[in-house]
## 1
Amino acid sequence: MPVHGLTPILLCLLHVWIIPSPASSHPQLSECRLIQRTALCNDAKLSSVPPGLPRNIEELQLNYNHIQTLQDDSLLRYPSLTSLSVACNSLEKLESNTFQDLSLLESLNLANNNLYIGYPETSQALKKLPGLKVLDLSENKLEDEMAATLLQNLTSLEYLNLSGNLLRRLDETSFRDLNKLKELNLQRNIIFEIDGAFASNSKLQRLNLAFNNLPCLTDFHMTHLVVLNASHNFIEWFISRQDLNDTFQLETLDLSDNKLLFFPFLPSHSHLRNLYLSHNSLRFYEQLADNATSPNATTTVEFYNLRKYASNVTAELWDDSLHGDVSSLEILDLRGNQVEYFPYGFIQKMPFLSRLQMCTNCLKSLNLTYEQFPGSLYELDISNNRLKQVVADEGTLAVLGNLTYFNLSLNDLEWLPPRFFSSLPSLRSVDLSYNHIDICLSEEAEISTDLVSSCVDWRNVVSLGQLYLKGCNLELIPSSAFAGLSLTHLELSDNPGLVLQSIQSLSRTLQHLGLGNTHIQDFDFSHLKNLKFLNISRNSLAHLSPSLLTLDLKVLDLRDNRLSTIPHGLANALAPNLQIVFLTGNPFNCCQTEWFRAFEKSKTIQMVGLSDIECEDPVRTQQLQHLESSVCFNEAGESIYWYILLFVSISLSFVGISVMVLLTFKPQMLKKSIKKKCLKSTSY
Ligand SMILES: *[C@@H]1O[C@H](CO)[C@@H](O)[C@H](O)[C@H]1NC(C)=O
Ligand SMILES: *[C@@H]1O[C@H](CO)[C@@H](O)[C@H](O)[C@H]1NC(C)=O
Ligand SMILES: *[C@@H]1O[C@H](CO)[C@@H](O)[C@H](O)[C@H]1NC(C)=O
Ligand SMILES: *[C@@H]1O[C@H](CO)[C@@H](O)[C@H](O)[C@H]1NC(C)=O
Ligand SMILES: *[C@@H]1O[C@H](CO)[C@@H](O)[C@H](O)[C@H]1NC(C)=O
Ligand SMILES: *[C@@H]1O[C@H](CO)[C@@H](O)[C@H](O)[C@H]1NC(C)=O
Ligand SMILES: *[C@@H]1O[C@H](CO)[C@@H](O)[C@H](O)[C@H]1NC(C)=O
Ligand SMILES: *[C@@H]1O[C@H](CO)[C@@H](O)[C@H](O)[C@H]1NC(C)=O
Ligand SMILES: *[C@@H]1O[C@H](CO)[C@@H](O)[C@H](O)[C@H]1NC(C)=O
Ligand SMILES: *[C@@H]1O[C@H](CO)[C@@H](O)[C@H](O)[C@H]1NC(C)=O
Ligand SMILES: *[C@@H]1O[C@H](CO)[C@@H](O)[C@H](O)[C@H]1NC(C)=O
């Protein structure tokens, strides 16, 4: 696991930043700082507990020191302590009487130490804390037996953190005495089996099992649990006990990043509100079951507990109605699965569904009328599926009055219900990028009365603020397209050859305009007074529109054009407000770089990919950032190199011509000189 151990490192950094260096206000305790009854002795190179602190301190922090042992007498002087933190030391053991007079201690943080070495004695020490509620033992290389030993008799414990240890198997002995436990963090261990481990923890409400090696969770019957996080394991099956009549208190179940093949078999009665199932291999199989005409076909799977046969579990494989109680669901996250369809009545069972995240699945069609989406639906993300069409009748659309975010990008959409978006009064953000849609010309929309329409239109959707239409092969956007809208975001990038008629109607509201890779030239931006983000990259622009002068842009993308310079006046006008600018991929002229200095001078501008911004002069291409003062001849930017080159070539030609003339008209001179040389060289 590459991320193993990241949390404590972050924690360490955090402390280093938050806690100021030893203050001078208490010179007598140079390594500690006192704030009321709290002593902060973090990161002070201590190898033992400092003895000179006030006797009445209630909280003592000794993180990031070099303490190896807490001795019997280490804390004798501080009987009022309620909270002690010795995280990130090299603590190997706590002597058995360390806490003999600390009956008030409630919170103990021993994270990130080496307690695996002296755990038996440490365990004796912990037993003397009758009121301990919070214990952090994360990152101590603890194995199963060590943890069990350390936790013996800690009957008052409510919060326990064992994350980042070496636990493999949990059973009934693991947490037997912790019958007040409310919250247990077991993240980032190597747990592969859980067998009757939580039977004595009837108060447990929050359990985190993320980043372990669990292959399945069957026979789930922890009715008091409110939050279960089992993400990032290898779970193929989640099956809760189906014969229980009790209502499970479960509200949040996180099974994302596992290997689920089936929708989890949820409790038959629960208050489950948030179900996270992203990045599994989940799909529905009802259609398969209908096809399974072969009499021997398996329709159930049975799980045997190999040790004691204590709890065999049978699951009906193809029965999609057996997914349990989903009637309280508000968030259903199914991103990155293989869902092709929803079983009959599935969505209907969730009258409070607010967010449905279906991005990156295999949906082929979606009939909103058939599925009966509830009026509570707020966000619908069906991007990156295989949808060719979305179907809905007027009645259905009237119900979806709360739908606010609608992502349809990355499908093969050609057909949508007519006046689709106009029928959704709360719509704020629509993403239709990477589909094959067209924008209705004004007449088309009015005459179309079919059930489906091949063009889309948003006229008069007053609530609409963000419209994404990237990569839709759009050719013409009529000026009527945005009538009655108050868009703040308009993304039209990746529509090469786009003809954009006036967007004057958006001049008061538009803040973000994407026109990258549209081959657009000479667009007049001057009326877009509120524009903050402009993308005009990849448009082969040789010069910038003077209308940019009037804008107060914060982000400007000019990458991959043919710009040789940015006019001085424009650069100076942009510099005060600009925060991020993209400039790479332009053939800038090294002799016209005043603009660069203007941008460099402004401390607020971040030039993305600064080291890749290059300029050219006749001799070479160099980094604008490290421009060696190119000798440039005049303001027009003609380099003196040109003149030198010109001079040299003229001189050379002159010499050449002279030689030829000499050769032609005075051949005897040549002969003479050769003769002279020959005579000399042979004289020996
Ligand atoms: C500690 O727990 C064990 C069983 O786990 C029990 O036998 C023993 O009496 C307990 N000791 C104290 C001091 O509570
Ligand atoms: C351990 O878990 C507790 C809550 O259970 C949390 O407050 C603490 O920050 C966690 N410690 C680490 C090192 O993650
Ligand atoms: C589950 O744990 C993972 C890893 O710590 C975390 O990223 C995720 O947000 C948690 N899930 C929930 C629902 O809190
Ligand atoms: C659950 O309730 C049903 C009827 O409501 C009853 O027949 C059954 O025995 C109950 N099961 C348990 C385990 O209580
Ligand atoms: C078999 O399943 C396919 C979908 O996978 C379905 O289209 C077809 O109608 C089914 N055939 C029968 C006989 O149920
Ligand atoms: C079905 O079961 C019968 C008897 O149990 C067996 O003879 C037959 O080969 C099986 N058919 C298939 C397709 O497995
Ligand atoms: C579990 O299954 C095994 C094997 O079929 C069986 O011997 C055992 O009695 C079953 N246990 C229970 C509790 O049903
Ligand atoms: C959509 O579902 C409704 C209600 O079940 C049905 O009447 C209609 O024919 C379906 N439309 C399509 C195109 O499947
Ligand atoms: C729509 O949203 C509002 C405000 O969040 C809420 O009060 C209302 O109940 C929702 N409508 C439906 C049908 O759920
Ligand atoms: C829509 O979904 C795509 C793909 O999942 C994502 O890249 C894009 O950012 C989403 N659009 C919005 C506006 O969130
Ligand atoms: C600008 O548009 C281009 C072309 O679609 C895209 O590659 C680039 O990421 C966009 N720039 C920003 C800053 O979003």
Note: Residues 304, 309, 312 surround 2-acetamido-2-deoxy-beta-D-glucopyranose (ligand 7) (CB under 6 Å).
## 2
Amino acid sequence: MAGFLRGNWPSLLVAVTTLLSSSAAKEVEPRRFELNITWEQNAPNGRAREMILVNGQFPGPTLEIFQGDEVEVVVHNKMPFNTTVHFHGIEQHLTPWSDGTPGLSQRQIQPDRSFIYRWTATQYGSYWYHAHQKGQLDDGLYGPIIIYPSEDIAAPFDLISSDPKTLHDIEKAARNPTPLILSDFRHTPSYEVEPLQRESNVEFTCYDSILFNGKGSVDCWSPEKIASLLSTQQKGFLKNANLTGFTPKGCLPGGAVATVLSPTVPIDVSVIPSEIFDVCVPSTGPQEVITAHESQKWLALDLIGAFGIFTVSFSIDSHPLYIYAVDGEYITPQRVDAVSITNGDRFSVLIPLTTPGSFAIRAASVSAAQLKSATASLTVQGGPGSTNSTAPPTVPSILDNGLPASPNVTKFFSQPKQKQFHPPELVQQTSDQIFKLNMRISGTSFGWALNSSLLPISTLDWAADPVVLFSPKPYAADNVTIYTFNDTWVDLVFITGTFPMPPHPIHKHGNKMWLIGSGTGPFPWATVDEAVQAVPEKFNLVDPPRRDGFVTLAAQTEPTWTVMRYHVTNPGAWLLHCHIQGHLAGGMSLVIQDGVDRWPVVPDEYLEYS
Ligand SMILES: *[C@@H]1O[C@H](CO)[C@@H](O)[C@H](O)[C@H]1NC(C)=O
Ligand SMILES: *[C@@H]1O[C@H](CO)[C@@H](O)[C@H](O)[C@H]1NC(C)=O
Ligand SMILES: *[C@@H]1O[C@H](CO)[C@@H](O)[C@H](O)[C@H]1NC(C)=O
Ligand SMILES: *[C@@H]1O[C@H](CO)[C@@H](O)[C@H](O)[C@H]1NC(C)=O
Ligand SMILES: *[C@@H]1O[C@H](CO)[C@@H](O)[C@H](O)[C@H]1NC(C)=O
Ligand SMILES: *[C@@H]1O[C@H](CO)[C@@H](O)[C@H](O)[C@H]1NC(C)=O
Ligand SMILES: *[C@@H]1O[C@H](CO)[C@@H](O)[C@H](O)[C@H]1NC(C)=O
Ligand SMILES: *[C@@H]1O[C@H](CO)[C@@H](O)[C@H](O)[C@H]1NC(C)=O
Ligand SMILES: [Cu+2]
């Protein structure tokens, strides 16, 4: 039994079959998925490259699960690279070895090997899976997870409408959400990007396409269009670097990225191929079409931000969005015109279908380093007796730079107003431990540090043997490793130490956190209690938003701080990191050993897996 995870996949299949039949007496069989991960030619935006497919698809298949299920995901690595698969936002309650973080929770899955992830679907809602090995997310290893809520979970739909018929239509739509994965996509494979970044000392902030469910095109805009969309901040970056414009790809030129972020570090832009930042070659791939019928009245979408770097504005022409869940958990619904989506985010939205027609689904980058937008289509077919001749012209809510398209567009999703519909517990008013993390750029423009020192992902991938979960360093505190005790409350204070500081989408593995406060200026207080005394208006300890990732405040000229609080209930080795792939690769991570006093006993088959 101990060895059944080893070996190549055909023998494993036999072993798994045996295992399943021998456990047939068990009442509940696990919900089982098999993911064949391959490295193949594909052309999601009309231009071919080698990339990652899961079961021959991109994005990977949706894992449909019912809350309470035991889940088994068998990964067969048929790529020429090591890999791991992380289940983003899944708390992995009592199964920290199935979290998919190389060096922290498991050894890497080598080519022609397999690995079985096992976890319990304790949560409900919208999640996703993705590679956690180096830059493989950018190569296409991701797919949606839907966990259908159990019957006893109350939903907030009667806050959208109290009309019984409408409520019925809404509930029906929400039972069957359509995943819509948004991603940024690059032609250059991640294994080429990494060494080129190191050789040039420049962070590669430029992508080729925005994709909807893996479909899109390469649009090349005229210099005039690009110039007309530039923000004041973007013009300022150009001015500092003595440049006049963004590149034909709509990007801040590579040299200027480094000038802005790490002006004292020598760079070598000559090693950067011109297609990375500059040359735009148009190509056309398929367009994603979401089809619905007017008679449904409502449509539910699970929006998933599978970005390597972008944050986008998202909207659907002529349609409001009712956001009813964030990162999988119900909230008091917000009716908005648009929502900003960043790396790792999930927004579950309901859309009223009132008119047949075709409406643009828009995503536009609001990241400072690149202008880019793309559209998919919402096609609403007409019901019997309806006519589309009277359909009004469609009205966009956002422009190609993500800004509101007209003064009428006033409602973007508001995180401060995000109210959890039924939080599992109240946030504790005081904490037991505080960790102040000084975020800064350390060296090159991609060398972001979560706390002063870099923890490059390569350190975890290659050097962390034994794996932290298997051999914890309980009392290690070396700038990049912290520890906590079970059933304590922990504050993570993210302080910007260098300027300019972009917003960082910080994701914690293993549990959700509350965003209890943020502010501008230094954070001179020894504890969050003291901070709350001094600036109570900067805190919300009553009903703060709860998520598995929050974006830290950007900073231009003075420091900012962001406080996240969480309850340690799930001992294990968890990564806390920026979800921007370049920043993660560059070192923006912290190892959290949660609950060192109640460390889990790792099953032999995971300990021995190699
Ligand atoms: C994975 O690949 C194996 C061998 O090619 C095949 O038998 C199996 O059906 C594949 N599984 C899926 C889910 O595609
Ligand atoms: C692949 O994983 C194995 C096992 O963890 C490790 O020894 C090897 O160095 C890894 N290879 C690469 C290129 O990371
Ligand atoms: C921009 O030009 C000014 C004046 O010529 C010069 O002092 C500065 O070093 C230049 N900056 C860069 C990044 O080249
Ligand atoms: C609009 O009307 C045309 C002609 O009747 C029909 O073919 C088409 O499907 C309709 N479009 C929608 C979105 O209902
Ligand atoms: C704004 O809303 C008003 C009132 O509904 C409408 O008349 C006007 O055309 C809208 N303007 C734009 C730019 O959409
Ligand atoms: C921790 O940070 C300090 C200050 O930046 C540095 O001197 C030290 O080398 C770091 N330690 C480790 C283990 O990275
Ligand atoms: C953060 O790094 C500093 C060194 O710059 C170190 O003194 C401090 O202990 C670290 N904080 C944590 C929480 O590890
Ligand atoms: C950790 O603490 C939580 C919250 O009190 C508790 O439910 C859980 O059983 C504890 N875990 C262990 C392994 O003791
Ligand atoms: Cu970051």
Note: The chain has eleven helices and 32 strands.
